[in-house]
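hey can u check if this looks right to u? its 371 residues, i copy pasted from the old doc so theres a chance i mangled smth
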Amino acid sequence: MLHIITGLAAGGAEQQLRLLVRNQRGVAEVAALTNMGSVAQAIMADGTPVHDIRMRGNTDVAALPRLVGIIRAGSFDVVHTHLYRACVYGRVAARLAGVRHVVATEHSLGDGVIEGRPTSRGIRALYLAAERLGDATIAVSTTVARRLVAWGIPRRRVDVIPNGLEVDDYRYDPADRARLRAGLGIAGDRFVVGTVGRLVPGKGTDVALRAIRDQPGATTLVVGDGPQRPALTRLANALGVDAVFTGESADVPRLLSAMDVLLAPSRQETFNLAVIEALAAGLPVLYSSCPALDDLPSASVPWARRLPADSDAFGPAVAAEARIGPRRLPPPAALDAYATAHVVARIEALYAKLLGAAARRGEERVSRSRT
């Protein structure tokens, strides 16, 4: 199979692709349209080939014949696309190359936005036209599935298969906590309020910074990078809060050990893997939007508290957590639904269903020709 993704810098969809490729039973290759970042290096280190398409922008149609050539040379049974640009170009290239089975995963369709950009009429029309070239679209949550259907995609073409994680990788380690805090210049007795995610307005990192301004013994640990980082750094200085910005990091499991509570004040999400990772690490969580929790049985995670995405709500909740002090909680059993092995098995079952249906159609054609 060939996986096609827009880019491979550190990010949720990119890390999910790495997990999928590492755990699939079939032979896989990856093609990145642009941005051969840290996840590309990690995938290659795992032993999977990564093709760099070197696309120069959304309208660089020269990328299409390059993709077609790679697909034809690889004789792939399935092409699986990830993220908007790759889903458009990848589906077209797969059909031009003669691949009969094309699957897409929708990681980032929000209400009125996709991958943080407004969904114009043109974007929506192109998305729907490309979707018809595939066999199935995987939605990472029930919330995303509803959005796809509202856009006009038939429900029968949408499969809800969540993101996955290696739960054991997030087990709390006090040695990691001490080592990382020392490396980041955070004193051992500081109460650390963490955020994880790309630094863009929709993630609400500014809410987290404002939430600790009245907590003199607290530090905000901001894990991630993005265009809003300079503005957030200035905001932290203006508020007089103690904030540590790590930048892009592939070591989220260890960094969670350095935190005492995770804040996720996102205004909207498609899954919110950061919340699930924090729960796997035994952290209490304060969040605003998490479709991944919405899809679990109610009351299965009592120490994840939902709040409005503003500092007036998060500030008192942070103060309450600081009064309780550092604590580690058992990973909720409900997280087993997101175990990587389980998620990969569901994706492979979808591939098998598509390949099996094609084989049955072939057998029927042969039978008809003989009669």
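Confidence is low (pLDDT under 50) at residues 362-368.
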